[in-house]
Amino acid sequence: MKPQYKEIEAKFDKTIAALENEYSSIRAGRANTAVLDKLSVDYYGAPTKINQLASLSIQEARILVVQPYDSSVLKEIEKAILASDIGINPQNDGKVLRLTFPPLTEERRKDLCKQIQKEAENAKVAIRSIRRDALEVYKAQKKKSEITEDDLKVCEKDIQDATDKYCKDIDDISKKKEAEIMEI
What we know:
Blueprint: H1 6-24, E1 40-43, E2 46-49, H2 50-53, E3 54-60, E4 63-68, H3 74-83, E5 91-92, E6 97-100, H4 106-143, H5 149-183
Antiparallel strand pairs: 1-2, 3-4, 4-6, 5-6
Helix pairs in contact: 1-4, 1-5, 4-5
């Protein structure tokens, strides 16, 4: 994109990064510490992320170990995991929590693919919203006679081309994630 579109491109990049972050938290049948990234625990009155309260490690391909730095918070972490939508019951041995990821069923894989498609569509909506806002700025400039009709047409074409490119990138990312889910 041209230099005057750097701000628009930065917003597009943030949308792609948010989508990839969202996909990293989708459980894919093997242990992944990212599934706990969104979970918070009330720690001395302040909501605190689990990865700040505990060491997260992958013991085996399907076992995630959560070892709190302060053992008094172990029960709270367990409650947060049980209350979340990740669908795993932690095993508490008094010192650490073990999360065993079961193999995915065909039905669960299809549900995850639907979730992936929904997130991809949300990202595309965000991209189109950024495009709409950017075009409004250029149309306002045209109305104030700051740019010509030809300049506006060039801006519209450039922004539309970028929008199409980023929507294609979103499709590629979602297809890759779906393939990952279906192959496991």
